[in-house]
Fold:
Amino acid sequence: QVQLVESGGGLAQPGGSLRLSCVASGFTFSDYDMSWARQAPGKGLEWVSGIYSDGRVTYYASFVEGRFTISRDNAKNTLHLQMNSLKPEDTALYYCVRGYGSSGYRGQGTQVTVSS
Structure:
């Protein structure tokens, strides 16, 4: 069955960095575009970033452009999100999503908290 397992979340100070990872199994990872989405407390799910199946094209929401970098390793069935210059408003549960957008199959999420 399809599994997406996120890791790498935690507590970071404003201006700090975290690197999220997602290990995929149960499907041919290299056939799918992938995305990261997040849900802050009391808010809806929002798309953060997406990457084409071959990794050559990436897209970012305006509120993370220039701070976050999405990447993938198809040989290891792994998706990453490097998050730099973190802000308190980045606090959310971050999900790995199969497909482009926020409506596809997603994992359980990893919590990111940005606070001093």
Q: What stands out?
A: The chain is about 0% helix and 50% strand. The longest strand covers residues 18-25. The chain has a mean pLDDT of 97.
